[in-house]
Design brief:
The chain has about 200 residues and is of the alpha/beta class. It contains 7 helices and 6 strands, in the order H-E-H-E-H-E-H-E-H-E-H-E-H. Helices cover about 45% and strands about 15% of the residues. The chain has a 6-stranded parallel sheet with strand order 1-2-3-4-5-6, covered by helices on one side. Strand 4, helix 5 and strand 5 form a beta-alpha-beta unit. The chain is globular. The chain starts with 8 loop residues before the first helix and ends in a 9-residue tail after the last helix.
């Protein structure tokens, strides 16, 4: 229909983005209704881990809109560092210099999360993202040691992260580091089935 009424591609894209934001808000409100029915009053809001700066900001704004309209407490997390686009070699700089400052200016996220894993973000890259977010007032969290031992749990402990998540391949060093600090070891065993992984967290 938008093509038939001869709108420009830019205008069509704006309409599509608006519809996507509305649909995301509707899905979030539906999820919140479900959580209310089972008695929970807190849900962490995580965005889809794809897209450039504009998509990241739009999704976090949709979470903010849902927060303003629901009795459920939403705790938004910025997940910009969860996918490394192969066609954007400068994406790490985009996160640090563009996405995180924009998120902080609008107060869109409480937490800043990074996915440290082979083929995604290295330990050094994850640390750079999390330290940049911390300087802007966002609390670090880390998806760590999910597919391999990347020493992510120890990194989470060093950074004083709120949590180190997944931990299917956590090392003895990582276990010791988490035991000696206040960072929460957050196991997510259901992802093992989704990923068809033979590895269980050592717990």
């Amino acid at each position: 229909y938008l093509l038939w009424i001869d709108l420009s591609p830019a205008t069509i894209n704006r309409h599509i983005l608006t519809l996507r934001s509305i649909s995301k808000l509707g899905r979030m409100l539906g999820l919140m209704t479900w959580f209310i029915e089972i008695g929970s009053v807190k849900k962490e809001a995580r965005r889809v881990t794809r897209g450039p700066t504009v998509a990241e900001i739009k999704q976090l704004r949709a979470i903010r809109t849902a927060l303003a309209r629901s009795p459920v407490r939403l705790v938004p997390t910025c997940l910009a560092a969860h996918e490394l686009p192969r066609d954007n070699p400068d994406y790490l700089e985009t996160i640090v210099n563009d996405i995180l400052p924009a998120v902080a200016r609008e107060g869109l996220a409480v937490f800043n999360d990074a996915f440290v894993e082979r083929g995604v973000f290295t330990r050094e890259q994850g640390e750079a993202v999390l330290r940049a977010g911390a300087r802007l007032g966002m609390i670090p969290r880390l998806h760590a040691d999910e597919l391999s031992d990347t020493d992510g749990a120890a990194l989470a402990a060093i950074l004083g992260a709120a949590s180190a998540d997944h931990l299917m391949y956590i090392s003895d060093r990582g276990i010791g580091a988490l035991a000696a600090c206040d960072t929460l070891a957050n196991l997510l065993p259901a992802t093992r089935f989704f990923l068809l992984s033979p590895q269980d967290a050592p717990a």
